[in-house]
Amino acid sequence: MIIKNKTIIADDWTVLRLQEHDTAEDIIVSVGKVIVPLKVWRAQHETLQQRKDIGVWLASDERAEDLKDDVQKFSVIAIDFPKFSDGRGYSIAYNLRARLGYKGELRAIGDVLRDQLFYMHRVGFDAFAPRPDRKIEDALKGLSDFSEVYQTSFNPILPLFRRTQRKGNSTVGTLND
Predict the structure, then answer these.
(1) Which of 85, 88, 139, 140 counts the highest number of beta carbons within 10 A?
(2) Which residues, 6+ apart, have CB-to-CB distance to 121 below 8 Å?
(3) Could you report the per-residue pLDDT of 36-89, keeping only the tens digit for each?
């Protein structure tokens, strides 16, 4: 199960993780919807680009720009959080959405906990695979921890003062705001 668009749904994708003895060139990517590591995508590009059921995931030390030529080919891109305290995935997500214009599913995988979901959503994530040792229903509540945000991000694009009508001011967005 995953959280997608603020709903718990069945996950029909498999995340491929290389084992210690596997190589990106030699690993066999199974049939069906598979999210492969970026290094597998690069190593097997000629074969994998023919498939419509391939997604890609980026490690926290990889860059969104590494996918700039292929970003629109994927219906799902995942970003791995190797540990709760590693925040590099937030920047990767923001860059995929804001700089590269990625419109497909952007999924957080790895050490994903409830406390992160609200902030992950703000930078463009719309799907979350919480840690398997936690209740997904509790994680879903993390998306509604706060009712309003002040600053801008990918979501919402406008800051609070641009999204609200103030008493005594009939025009929002003027120089007097």
Answers:
(1) 139
(2) 143, 155
(3) 999 999 999 999 999 999 999 999 999 999 999 999 999 999 999 999 889 999
